[in-house]
């Protein structure tokens, strides 16, 4: 069994539609020079990782399903004089990269994932196979307009961040991976459900006949 321990978890205060006034409040939490470069998704991501002391040797895993769909809409709307800024900011994994660039954080290992129902299989594998002492999982979505209406973007907005470490002392939970002797049916999990589970501090169990069993549990 492979195991790592959860030391911190943060989520946005709500899941759903963020108004312009609410986004303005998020911008106030950043330096002016930082905030003006960040997309709405990057604002949420930057806020949830703010208390984390991420350094260059740490591993950061980024998880999303639709990434910067709202910015992609703006890029399409800028045609025929296509905006290079919108194009650059629409490319996965722009959301978390914007935060690191704005804060001048030199991350050695950034592992971006994008997917739907099986997203967390790859994400959990990356966290548990990392050789870094500290690993961070950062993820989120941001609601678009017409792309959300056509199921090409998320219909809710949120962000989350978890700090994992090989050290057990002070941990608030753990993530384990069992592969030996596992014969199980598939039970997957996407980004929205994962967010809801960690926000409410619920247990998570993901099973797959090829991967094995992942369990995320909270200590009392």
Summarize the structure.
With 220 residues, the chain is an alpha+beta fold. 32% of the residues lie in helices and 25% in strands.
What does this protein structure show overall?
The chain is α+β, with helices and mostly antiparallel strands. The chain is built from 9 helices and 8 strands. The two termini are 22 Å apart.
Helix content: 25-40%
Give the low-pLDDT segments.
Answer: none
How many angstroms separate the termini?
A: 22 Å
Largest sheet: 8 strands, mixed
Strand order of the largest sheet: 3-2-4-5-1-6-8-7
Strand tally, please? Answer: 8
**Average of the residue pLDDT scores:** 92
SSE arrangement, N to C: EHHHEHHHEHEHEEHEE
Rg calculated over all Cα atoms: 17 Å
Treating each run of at least 4 consecutive H or I residues as one helix, how many helices?
9
Percentage of β-strand residues: 25-35%
Shape: globular
Judged by helices, strands and strand pairing, the structural class is: alpha+beta
Write the layout of secondary structure elements.
Layout: E1 2-11, H1 20-27, H2 32-35, H3 40-48, E2 59-64, H4 69-77, H5 84-90, H6 94-102, E3 109-114, H7 119-129, E4 134-141, H8 146-149, E5 158-165, E6 173-178, H9 191-199, E7 204-208, E8 212-218
Parallel strand pairs: 2-3, 2-4
Antiparallel strand pairs: 1-5, 1-6, 4-5, 6-8, 7-8
Helix pairs in contact: 3-6, 4-5
